[in-house]
Amino acid sequence: MTLPRPHRLDLFIALSGLACGVLLWSFGLYTTGDRVLDQRWAALVPLAVMASMEALRRTLPQTALIVGTLALVADQFTNGNLLTVLMFTDIVYAAVVYGSPSLARRVPYSTGLITVAVTVGFLVWWQNAIALLIGVITGMISFMPAVTGSIVRNHREAAEAARLRAEQTALLAEMDRTQAVVAERSRMARELHDMVANHLSAIAIHSTAALSLDEPATTRQALTVIRENSVAGLAEMRRLIGLLRDSGADTEPAAAPTLAGLDALVAQSAANAGPSGLVLVLDDTRQSPAALPAPVELAAYRIVQESLTNALKHAAPGEVRVALGQDPGALWIRVTSPYGERPGPTAPGSGAGLVGMRERVALLDGEFEAGPVTDDGGRKTWRVRAELPVGASDEERV
Predict the structure, then answer these.
(1) Is the pTM of this model over 0.70?
(2) Domains of the chain by range and CATH?
């Protein structure tokens, strides 16, 4: 087994203690006299052993304490050296500071009991005040260093715990910031897709129609629709860019779309859907269309907008029906469109629209599904269904 390498500071303490102890020994300065081993060199043995244990005070604190205690006991049978006692106090202190948690708990209690036992024992034996002085000295070289080491260790552990808490707090703050950035980017992606995809889809379909049909009237009509959607899409882009630039400024937020604008949205989509053979119908079955929480109105508007965009790009000719209704505690949306092969021009899709609709509904703890279904007449349709809670907690979710 290879012994751990001593710390440089411990080596310096050990060499300094040994040198000072030898210096006191050379001058004949002892702590006691008339002991069992009265040879002059005998005091150097405990001194050398204690100095070697000082070198291990940080790497092997328990071993240093045990051997150091034996060296201190042996020193009492010689003329004694002050540096042997002083280095022992440092070993007791280091055992508490650098030792294992169990050792750090045991040493203060053990030294305290030893101090009390020595004091009581000498009082019974000598029955004079000198016994109290021996008890005080015993406490100073054993119990007091242990208590000091315990205080220092507690402060260090408290500081380390505070540092770990600060690191955890910083890590949690960074995770929150990252999640906030991801959520904001997702929101921006949904808004950008929902605002612009409708206009770009119309532009793609009408430009394809204008290129494929060599009719001046049809070409002129298609170019008119293309220009209208280009201008509207550019306006939407400018509004979004303005929101991004002014997000840190103290400005009034731009008005978000609401369900009151569904009539205009369906009318615009109907104009764009003319060449595709689609007929758009809005069926609002709500008894009293009262104002709903802003997040619900925005999500419902965007779901209808994206559903109409998908119908414009992919639906077969036929009726596209937008139905709205409200049950106690929930707003439901149904958008159905013919499902099948599309004969006319189409626009490519990436599936991001369905993902965006699903995310909007999930943020409000609602229900969403989209896919082909078969109606009562046996015809296949593409249906988008969403249910959005309209309880009081909706505003708190955003």
Answers:
(1) no
(2) 8-170 (no CATH), 257-398 (3.30.565.10)
